[in-house]
Amino acid sequence: MCYDAFNSMKAPKQNRRRFLALGAGLAGLTACKKTVPSEIGAGVRAYGERSPLEKAARDVKESITPGTGATRTPLQDLDGIITPSSLHFERHHAGVPSIDRAKHEILLHGMVEQPMVFTMDDLRRFPSVSRIYFIECSGNGGGELAGNPQPDPQKAAGLLSCSEWTGVPLSTLLKAARLKPEAKWVVAEGADACLMARSIPMEKALDDILVAYGQNGEAIRPEQGYPVRLVVPGWEGNINVKWLHRLHVVDQPAMTRDETAHYTDLMPDGKAQMFTFVMEAKSIITRPAGGQKLAYGPGPYEVTGVAWSGKGKIQRVEVSVDNGQTWTDAELQTPVLSKAITRFRLPWQWAGKAAALQSRCTDETGYTQPTIEALNAVRGYRSTYHCNAIKTWHVKEDGSVTHV
Ligand SMILES: Nc1nc2c(c(=O)[nH]1)N[C@H]1C(S)=C(S)[C@@H](COP(=O)(O)O)O[C@H]1N2
Ligand SMILES: [Mo]
């Protein structure tokens, strides 16, 4: 932001000196740039790294089984809509296998006229596409529903990432193998130690699923499924089978295999809903948010965050600073893409008083993100899966922001 634009922001009187000081600081930076010589040659690397001053990192959750666990994306540190590959969340049930790309194959068989085997090079002979999609684990935000609100965006919603994925549409491969009329499901199986498998209804398999080998312009990272994974846009993370090595076309879902992997919701009537596919619309404010501080005292701040829906595009994000009593439309940063993260922004004048910040999104189907109370009523009381409830951040008078 240039100095003039910054200066023209309407700062309350008592804050004028702060702004002037900041302006001087910015001017100083520009001067520095001119006088500090760069170390010639020091930055030349075959594969680049970020500045050593940057600290954004995933938080690591190891589970009791060695090699399994999760990492969460530091949403509060990110800008825009793309998650750097190094910060993509990870969730694996049996560790990360090391697979030799040159030897890896995908078997496509079952109720098809022409069973096929693809090497990674064979796969690339089919026409590919690149698309931006989010992946969200259905355990994301589980603590929120269970009455245990998490302290920052990473812990509250960091099992969410968004990448540009490159691959061959699954429909292209299924058409090449020629489906038999009785083909109704595709069981996708991974090459990790647990051979994780999920069943996908044929309608979705022929829709927008990618057999993906690329992530943000380069090969998929080992943790994301190198050398190839399924990307199943908008559906729960678990079904995005990594280290894909088998596609079995069948007439009914392989229930016993799925039982090791699916995420069951306990409903209010005590029944269990075993399969949930679509991740419903959700948003969270990432700045200012829990663990942060409004460091400049009362005055102008930007409220920003992310919104996404497994059903399509985000149509609207509203922000409340008074615990949901009144709402203001935030600006949606373009492009707004289907089944991808959408960034929202809203300028806010903090008056220096306690405030409760919330965001609430609506997707193109007209579905609006619910409160925790409403969600518990429809989706399962204290379920730890599929939580898309509105999240509240509490701004205290001293400018600190907390989750309670
Ligand atoms: N083969 C295999 N695929 C898998 C998993 C796994 O353990 N093994 N974990 C699933 C789960 S639960 C999620 S949420 C996503 C996470 O993808 P990511 O690790 O790339 O973020 O991968 C899914 N695909
Ligand atoms: Mo997951």
The largest β sheet comes out as: 5 strands, mixed
Alpha-carbon Rg, integer: 23 Å
The overall pLDDT, averaged over residues, is 87
Distance, first to last CA: 33 Å
Based on Cα principal axes, name the global outline: globular
| Bound molecule types | the ligand Nc1nc2c(c(=O)[nH]1)N[C@H]1C(S)=C(S)[C@@H](COP(=O)(O)O)O[C@H]1N2, molybdenum atom
Please report the total strand number as a whole number.
24
Spatial ordering of strands, largest sheet: 5-4-13-8-9
CATH names the topology of the largest domain as Sulfite Oxidase, Chain A, domain 2
> How many helix segments?
9
Structural class category: alpha+beta
- Integer count of domains: 2
Strand proportion, as a percent range, falls in 25-35%
Main traits of this protein?
binds ligand MTE; Immunoglobulin-like; alpha+beta; globular; five-stranded mixed sheet; Sulfite Oxidase, Chain A, domain 2; 404 residues; single chain; five-stranded antiparallel sheet; binds molybdenum atom
